[in-house]
User: What shape does this take?
Amino acid sequence: MSDASYLSLEKLTLAYGDTVAVADLDLDIRKGELIALLGPSGCGKTTTMRAIAGLLPVKSGQVRLDGADMTRVPANKRAVGLVFQSYALFPHLSVYENVAFGLKLKGMRGAELDTKVQAGLKSVGLSSFANRKPAELSGGQQQRVALARSMVMEPKVLLLDEPLSNLDARLRLEMRTELQRVQKETGVTMIFVTHDQAEALALADRIVVMKGGAIEQIGTPEDIYNRPVSSFVADFVGFENIFPLEGGKLRTSGGLIELSGEAPSAAGLAWRPRMVTLGTGPFRGTVRGTSFAGDSREYLLDTSLGAIKAEVEAALPAHALGADLLFDLPAGKAALLSKFS
Ligand SMILES: Nc1ncnc2c1ncn2[C@@H]1O[C@H](COP(=O)(O)OP(=O)(O)OP(=O)(O)O)[C@@H](O)[C@H]1O
Ligand SMILES: [Mg+2]
Assistant: This one.
């Protein structure tokens, strides 16, 4: 086993009856890595997690962990922890008992058990809440109990399936930091499912973007944010102006358009609103919408290329609805897409 493949999914195919949900998926995860699984609803994130945990039989392919083939190993023998969105704490048990539950099942008792549970509670900042019942905790605190309950089992891999989606914005941010801290402190390998690209960018060592049961792109947050490989990923991470290229020209709703500057060779080009030059350039647009976002102002332009979104510093003079503006899509700033779907 190399360091690069502490957890390996090899040609993994997963199905519900005859319906294939994940096909031929290959993924290598390093020990101690924090991986975010990102993708639209139904793309196979939970299905993949269930297979890693041993909760879903594998149709074909392999799950390998720490050098061993886990494909047919039952869930309770895999040393894989799982925290779901609905974290299902035992309501009649105290926080302490919830965290102790799995350790007791393993036969742990006495001082050893107490030390482990106390350390678990401390790691998520809940030492003083040990005697409360789950119903007496906030959503974020309940989520931390769920995290402690999994962490005390010292899993080789911890899977988190949208663990923060029940929390309000402030708590999400707090828990996000907490997760990152616990992960760095313990060095546990983590796979984290989220719908939220900002969350994935903020947390992950690497992001896996899934689409339709397959991996579309794997990369660092910088890769995914700045160098999406496909129109799908570009769209997912906020490039709003995305066009296919044909013979070096942009294919737009207004026909084939020649770009200023040398046309790169790619299947498509994408610009974030901020990459659009406003005020000069070969193209013309009419302001159809404008919104103020604090530091910046966004414009929706009607153009011969179709709708274009541009974002400029709010300190610049504002343009009124209906104003005619020149603009440019600089080829040199565009993300080069090798795949257009
Ligand atoms: N128990 C099931 N029986 C049949 N099909 C299922 C079952 N669970 C999931 N599927 C299907 O498998 C595909 C992948 O589902 P999965 O739950 O893995 O998606 P997901 O990426 O986790 O989506 P979400 O973001 O909505 O949670 C979907 O098409 C879904 O309808
Ligand atoms: Mg899911």
Remarks:
- The longest strand covers residues 277-293.
